Amino acid sequence: MDDMRFERRVAIVTGGGRGMGRAHCLELARRGAKVVVNDLGTALDGSGSTTGLADDVVREIVEAGGIAVANGDSVTTEEGAAGIAKTAIDAFGRIDILVHNAGTATYAPFAEMSYQMYRDLVSVHLDGGFLTAKAVWPHMQRAGYGRIIFITSQAGLSGFPHMAHYGAAKTGLVGLSRSLAVEGAEFGIKANTLGVAALTRMMDNFFETGDDDKPDMPGSSENWWRRFLRPEMVSPVVAYLAHEECPITGEILDTSGGHVAFQFLGTTPGFGDLGLTAEMVRDNFSTIVDPKGYDVFKPASDFLEWRNGKIIDMGAE
User: What pLDDT was estimated at residue 198?
Assistant: First the structure.
């Protein structure tokens, strides 16, 4: 089988200056893509900025024989997102791939989480995904081709203490990608989300004191993560989703440590009655939640057709 190459393709990677973003830039460039390394260079909480991180990654790519340019615009504003797209067009004349990886992390119990803390985080993860996708969309439409990858996380999709804002943002990206997948189909644009886990600066507060003294406890020690959950182990899946051979759109993959899985939204056959009451829900709840015979849906129109069919089956002719 031929290698999956990206000659003639142009990729934008947000948050590409370090961690997983840096690894994605290096992987795509190694495979022949021209890369726009976008990074505002902020601290983990979103404060401060420096263009040095993006410049360093560009230098690393160029020294390895690749092609890349740096960009220091923010993903949180329309102007910033437009600036990222303009950098790609000015340098390379096209945009084929968007990897929205930029993110910040803050923590607080929900009772103590301020709206400003929520807005600050959502503006980078979710608003940033919307704005950067909006900025590249017309270029992909005109070309009749595009690949959009939003980075999500199980800490968001499954829920995690003190990260309600993170959960809202990361789950929102799934809904965004599914809608873009439907709208983009006629233009050759595919959009997917990728759940990831790796040892990056976002894990700084994850490990309890003393974990370094317990390297043989799989999954709970920082040393174990450093050995087996390296950022570069996520990048092959990013490259797959970014490639023209990728067959899926509107879907969710999850990867860490060399393992890849497919995630999906499923609906049980359920229970129905045209005279439904709360008591019927109570008395048939075990049937309602029984996953046997579940269905999986892509666009909402398919789900609507399925659900209306169930109601017709109940006698609503």
Answer: 74
Distance CA 260, CA 236 (A): 10
**By three-state DSSP, how is residue 197 classified?**
coil
Q: Over the stretch 46-93, which tens digit does the pLDDT of each residue have?
A: 565 667 899 999 999 999 999 999 999 999 999 999 999 999 999 999
Q: Is the pLDDT of residue 171 over 50?
A: yes
- Single pTM value for the model: 0.90
Residue of 145, 166, 240, 294 marked catalytic: 166
Whether 223 has a pLDDT exceeding 60, the answer reads: yes
Residue listed under structure tokens 């009451």: 277
**What is the separation of C-alpha 130 from the centre of its chain, rounded to a whole number of angstroms?**
12
DSSP code string of 208-277: PTTGGG-TTSTTT-HHHHHHH--GGGTHHHHHHHHSTT----S-EEEEETTEEEEE--EE------TT--
Q: Residue 303 carries which side chain, given as an amino acid letter?
A: F
Residue 166 annotated as catalytic: yes
Largest Cα span, the chain: 70
- CA distance linking residue 62 with residue 160, whole number of Å: 39
